[in-house]
Amino acid sequence: MVTTGDSYAVKILNRIRLAVVIKAHVPDVRAKVFVFTAMKTMYGGKHIAPGDTVFVFASENEGGQGLVARGVVTAAEATAKKRGVERQTPRVSVTVRRTAIAKRPLARNDLKPFTDWKDGAPQTELNFKFYRQATNKIAGVSDTAAAFLDTFF
Known about the structure:
Blueprint: H1 7-14, E1 19-24, E2 33-42, E3 53-58, E4 66-78, E5 91-101, H2 108-111, H3 122-131, E6 137-141, H4 143-150
Helix pairs in contact: 3-4
């Protein structure tokens, strides 16, 4: 039972679920559970929490092929910041239970042509968040982008 004294738990239960994307090294794309440790977060990714929908991209920088799975967050924990470092990107460790495997590909080459940052297309949003700065990361995405990604399953 959650009480009003447990503000973090109440906050998590009362928030709107996020759709997030994770681009990372994925050694086994068919794994039933993915564990991502101390992942860089951008574009609201630091707010990831259990119950959120996750679209997993196997990083092409590490031999992956792009979108590979959809899942749900089962655990999320912020990584402590390092002392003495002024500017740090928030990092989070996340466990994801896979719920589906992508039925068709979506990779960097598919998103590369979408560069009009103000056109509102879900492909442009994904290109901007993943490939403008090509590091592995967790990022929040719009409902439109999540609906677009759902069409790959």
